[in-house]
Amino acid sequence: MGSGSEEAAPLLLPVAAATATAEERCPGCVQERRKASRGGRIPYTELFFVAVTTLASSLPITCLFPFLYFMVRDLQVAQTEEDIGYYAGFLGASYMVGRSFAAIFWGVVADRIGRKPVIVFSILSVVIFNTLFGLSTKYWMALTTRFVLGALNGLLAPIKVNTAWGLGLVVGPALGGYLAQPVEKYPHVFSKESVFGRFPYLLPCLGVSLFAAIVLISCIWLPETIHKHKSPDKDIKRIKELPLQQAYWDSPRKKSLFQNRPWMSTMISYCFFGLHDTAYSEILSLWAVSDRKYGGLSFSSEDIGQVLAVAGASLLAYQLIIYHWVHKFLGPIISLRIASALSILILSTYPFMTYLSGAELSLALYSAAMMKSALAITISTGICLLQNNAVLQEHRGTANGVSTTAMSFFKAIAPVGAGVLFSWAQKRQDALFFPASAAWTQEPAAKQLAALASELTFKEEIRRD
């Protein structure tokens, strides 16, 4: 017995040393030790680098909406003005179609080789293909570059920072609204013979690409969180040591993703919210910039960019200051339900804004857009919190990849459906059935003034008689 123990001891030492070395070198373990050493303090430096990375990923999506209508018009693919919304829908959907094809792949890659390589490659794709999108002179080129940009962008698999997305909703529309068509807006600075005269939508895309290039350099300081060693007994032991209620919540997380009912329910909600939110963004921009004779507001790209930027700023302020208290008192589920119900009421006010003008229109539109943004971030943040709590940390990349694929599919349907529906409604302005019931009450201003003048003339003749 004694000799057996003496012979076994030397064999155990190298194994223990190898295990200790693996854990010491594991980037996930390093991050856990750093987290423990902070004593509960928030890692602001690391959060900053993660946030700017998320911002660089969101800008190509958000900067498009203010000038999408005008870009499709200038590409001369639409036969009539009413068809612009149809083609704009497909262009807006191309990014999400590409992302839906590749999101699961990027999630698996992030879980296997690490989050950081996926992030670096995704930011590099933004630098290249977002610039090519700004150089598009044909509709097919714009469609292709957006599709490839979505397919190569795998950032939603490793990271999700809704506050940075809120900042993207401020910066992106502002860039798109103020920098698109610079020759028309700033003729004293940009000439028609310059590159920005030939490519009127390059400047906002180039601004996004330059920011992404700076973020690409900052990726050096991004922390890696993946665990590079296997310890199958670690999670089982941790679950056994948890209180009964927490252990009940954690037990489904050990199962397959599609057997994890809490995660599946949040993913379905995530998909339908993505459908709704993308359709809203698409329709709002198209409706605001279309002519009043088609039931729109006749806004410029600068006007709608300003509306979206203000809405994004209110969203950012709400999430940084107010949402903490909403989450504390209501929790993610109740706040999500209340925000969904209130969104219906807010959306129902938009059709009546065509009756307004001047300060009244600005007040109504800005107020509705700000409230809708706050409600949207309440819903998306609640869903993300529920999703992350439903799976284990080492499975989150794959889980986010699967949910991103499903959500991207719904987000791809949304612009197409919204654009087709919008064009169909504009073509039926004089129809006797829906949407004419709304269309003929939203007559062009010239027709309304002519009808009013005719009525006043008729009354004046009666008074004279």
Description:
By secondary structure, the chain is mainly α. It has one domain (40-224, 259-422): MFS general substrate transporter like domains (Growth Hormone, Chain: A, Up-down Bundle), CATH 1.20.1250.20. Helices cover 76% and strands 0% of the residues. The chain has helices spanning 2-25, 27-38, 44-62, 65-74, 84-112, 115-134, 139-152, 162-179, 182-185, 195-198, 202-218, 232-241, 244-250, 261-289, 301-347, 358-390, 396-427, 436-439, 445-464. Helix 5 runs parallel beside helix 7 (139-152) and helix 14 (261-289) packs antiparallel against helix 16. The termini are far apart. Mean pLDDT is 77; it is low at 1-19, 232-250 and 436-452.
| Element pattern in H and E | HHHHHHHHHHHHHHHHHHH
Considering DSSP H and I runs of 4 or more, what fraction of the residues is helical?
Answer: over 70%
Structural class: mainly alpha
Strand content: under 5%
Whole-number count of domains: 1
**What CATH architecture label applies?**
Up-down Bundle
CATH class wording:
Mainly Alpha
Alpha carbon gap, first and last residue: 128 Å
Relevant CATH superfamily: MFS general substrate transporter like domains
In total, the number of strands is 0
- Average of the residue pLDDT scores: 77
The CATH topology name reads Growth Hormone, Chain: A
Uncertain residue segments: 1-19, 232-250, 436-452
Tally of separate helices: 19
Biggest sheet features: none
Q: Summarize this, please?
A:
GO terms for molecular function: transmembrane transporter activity. This protein is mainly α and 465 residues long.
Topology:
Layout: H1 2-25, H2 27-38, H3 44-62, H4 65-74, H5 84-112, H6 115-134, H7 139-152, H8 162-179, H9 182-185, H10 195-198, H11 202-218, H12 232-241, H13 244-250, H14 261-289, H15 301-347, H16 358-390, H17 396-427, H18 436-439, H19 445-464
